[in-house]
Amino acid sequence: MRSQRHRRLNLALAVVAVAMLVTLAVVLLLDDDEDPAAGTGQPECGQPALTSSNGTPLDPDRARSVAGVHAAACAGDYNALIPFIPEWRRSYGSTLTPSGIVEGWRREDPSGVKLRAAAKVLERPGVGGQGGLEFCEPDKGRIGFSRGTIDAPPGLGSIEFPREGRPVECSPPTPGSG
């Protein structure tokens, strides 16, 4: 009697093991077909735009900055933005440090979700103007690169995220800008 019970138990265990292997195989097959970014909440990033809206290529320093900021934004990594932000010396003697600026952005978007969305903004050509180069999509954000002033060297000057369902305001391109 005991051997018949053992046979049933062995048969049941074999059925369970086969079912688990089939389930695992199906999961692995379906997983291979999925987008690696799917389910992570992170957008799949393309390439940063290295031209302005009029087709002019960005100068090498600006192109490196745009590519670096794009990579940091795509990863949602605020700390990786720090090397691209100049230190701002205000006329009354105080200083805005890159880490202080980044901390303000991080407080607004602690998980980096808005920053990852803003990476898409850098994938379309920017608009050049008096102050520098601006990349903007109203529903994703605005990223500005300063040309530099007497108070600060050129670099990443601003990131603005949409707030409370309101889009950011993008500056209209001026004739001949790019």
Order of helices and strands: HHEEHHEEEE
Tell me the strand order in the biggest sheet. Answer: 3-4-5-6
Q: Whole-Å distance between the termini?
A: 88 Å
Query: What count of helical segments does DSSP give?
Result: 4
- Extract low-pLDDT stretches: 31-40, 174-178
Give the overall form: elongated
Into which percent range does the helicity of residues fall?
25-40%
Strand count, sense and barrel status of the largest sheet are:
4 strands, antiparallel
Question: Which structural traits does this protein have?
Answer:
13% strand; alpha+beta; four-stranded antiparallel beta sheet; two-stranded antiparallel ribbon; 37% helix; 178 residues
Topology of helices and strands:
Elements: H1 2-33, H2 60-75, E1 88-89, E2 95-96, H3 98-108, H4 113-119, E3 127-128, E4 132-137, E5 141-146, E6 155-160
Antiparallel strand pairs: 1-2, 3-4, 4-5, 5-6
Helix pairs in contact: 2-4
